Amino acid sequence: MEQTSKLQTVALNLISKYFGQSTAEVYGQFFSGEPDDVITNSLSEIMVDYVGEEKAKAEISKIMKNLAV
Amino acid sequence: MKTRSIIRPIIFLFSFLIISVVYILNPKIQPLPIYTLYMIFPVGAALIGLYTSRIYRFNNANGRAMILIADGLFCWGVSESMAYVSDNFITSASLAPSLLEVVSLIGYLAVGAGIYQGYVAAEIKLKQVNKSLLAIVLLASIILTIIVGYFCVYLVYDPSADIATNMVSVGFGVGDLTLLVGSMLMILVAREYKGGKLASFWVTMTAGFFIFLIADITYYDIFGEQILADIKPYTYNDLLWVAAYAVIAYAMLENYIHINEIRNKIKLKIQQRK
Q: Bigger pLDDT: B104 or B168?
């Protein structure tokens, strides 16, 4: 549960960076109670569409690394 | 959704063509109705900029890029609107032109800072950039900087004029140089987001700023006298600004709509879950 909330926080920060705070707030509601794979899949989907596959991979792996630390 | 995304550029293109035809067919340049038509895209870009800047926050480079560019567009829209009011409704020329120019220059400053933040946000690793692309961008930047520097800064500087006048006139040259170098940076930024909507945004913005740059140089530094003397086809230079504003407004609008669609899609998912 602790890990999920951390994942949510970093995912929402990334969403806020590219799609603005109000989009991040809506995603916050959507992520609430969702398992990690749903969060990472949703994040990956919108990021690939917006910043391209390479950049999305780089951004997501960066937050995953930070999460693992 | 797809049909609408095809319709939007067609509407922009069609609107630009209508304005161009009206402009070209009109015997006298810039009577009120024509000037009003000219204002559609600058004001449109300013309004879309205003909406866009409300989406983002200043606490990260991408947000700062979007807010600063949007605010710069807003300044340009305000400056164009002030010129419109001043030219058409204030006959005593009481609205000091320098005020319009200062607002416009703040716009250049904001857009330049926004492009720089866009570059920072992209976290470009120059080592990973294709060497040929980097060489082309660098070479083009140097050549164009020399050309723009000569026409827009060196030729414009008047030793006999006062400091304020020179600051404003040279300021536009520096503003154009900012757009130029910025456009080159934006090519690298767009490459970083290859395949994504953000790449299309930066490519379209680059095209818009480049047209803006050409319009500025031809108006202020090459055909200024012919344009002021109302000689055709030089007077059609205005259409370059219309095109630039249209392209920039289109890029901002597409980005805004994309983010709105993402938000609505996820709201629908939340409702379905309930």
A: B104
B266 and chain A: CB distance < 8 Å anywhere? yes
Domain that holds residue A31: 2-68
Give the separation between CA B51 and CA B233, rounded to whole angstroms. 36
One DSSP character per residue, A2-41 reads: HHHHHHHHHHHHHHHHHH-HHHHHHHHHHHTT--HHHHHH
Put simply, whether B99 touches A (Cβ < 8 Å) is: no
CA distance B128 to B117: 20
CB contact under 8 A, B262 and A55: no
DSSP A1: -
Question: To probe the interface with A, which of B55, B56, B67 has the most A CB atoms within 10 Å?
Answer: B56
For the stretch B212-224, pLDDT in tens is 888 888 887 778 7
Q: Express each pLDDT in A22-57 by its tens digit.
A: 899 999 999 998 899 999 999 999 999 999 999 999
Distances (CA, A) of A32 to A67, A68, B105, B206, B251: 18, 21, 46, 39, 33
Q: Nearest-CA distance from B194 to chain A in Å?
A: 5
- ipTM of model: 0.89
pTM of the shown model:
0.87
